[in-house]
Amino acid sequence: MKAVVTGAAGFAGYSLTEALLQKGYEVYAILRPNSEHNNRFSKSNNSLHLIECDCNDFDSIAEAVNTDCDVFYHLAWFGGRDDFVVQNNNIAYNLKAVESAKKLNCKRFVGIGSQAEYGVVSELIKEDRMPLPINAYGSAKVSAMYLSKRRCEQLGLEWVWGRIFSLYGDYEPSGRMLPDLLRKLSKNEEVKLSSCEQNWDYLHVKDAAEAIIALGENGRPGEIYNIANGDYKPLKDYVVEAKETLNSKSIIDFGTKANPFVSLQPDVSKIKEHTGWQPTIEFSKGIVSFVESINR
Question: What is the Rg, in whole angstroms, of the alpha carbon atoms belonging to the chain?
Fold first, then answer.
C-alpha cells in the first residue's frame, strides 16, 4: 500500500507517518520546504520518501511523487485562529491536495478537520451536529470539508473526514495548556489556570494516528468521524491526575471560569463501530512518556 501524507513533519502528521511505516506502507511524506521539523525524519527507511513542497504547489504533488498511490492523507494546515488571510488560503491548499490525489489515482482522500468546527457546545457532540465555528480557523475547516467532499464526488474519489479533538504527546507545540502544565509540574513550579470546570477529552497522538489510518482503511465513504478518546471528564480532573502521576509539589491556582466556555464531550461510537478502532494509551502513562521527551 502506498500513502501520501501532507503535513508529515507536524504534530499529528509525524505520528501518522511513523504508524503507516510500521504497518508496512510506502509513504510519500510532503514537507514544508526548509522547516526545522523536517529533521525529525533522520533515520534511513527505504519505504519513506521525503518530498519538500510549498503549500501553494500542492496541486503539483503528483508530479513529485510520480507513482500511483492508494490513499491521500491531508493534514497540512497553517496560520493562527483568526488569521483570515492564511485560513482562507488553507481552503485552496486543501482543494489542490484533492486534485493531486486524483492525479495519483488514489482511491481515497482523508481530510483532517478539527473540534473547532463545532464551536461552543455544551451537549454530547455527534458528527451530525451543525457546525457553528467561532473563529476563522474553524470556519476554514468547515469550508474545506464541504468543498473537498464535493470535489471528490466530481472526481470519483472516496472522501472521509476526521475531526480531531485534543491531542497530546510527542512534538506537541509549546504554548498549549498541557505541555506547559507538564513542564511546570515536573519542575514543581506554581501553576495558574482557569477554574477548569469544562469537560475535556485528551487523546494521545499515537492513538490518533491509528484512528486516522483506520479511516483510510475502513472508514465509510462520505462520512465524518470524531477522533477523540471518548472518556471525557472535567479538565480539573486531568490536571489533578497529572500532578499526582508526576508526584509534583506544584501549587495549582484554579481561577475564574474560562471565556469562551468550551466544553468537549465527543461521541466516538461511530468511528469505533465503523472501523473497530479503540484508543489504547492511558492518560497517566502517556504523560509520563511525554514529560520524558520534553525534558530531554
Answer: 19
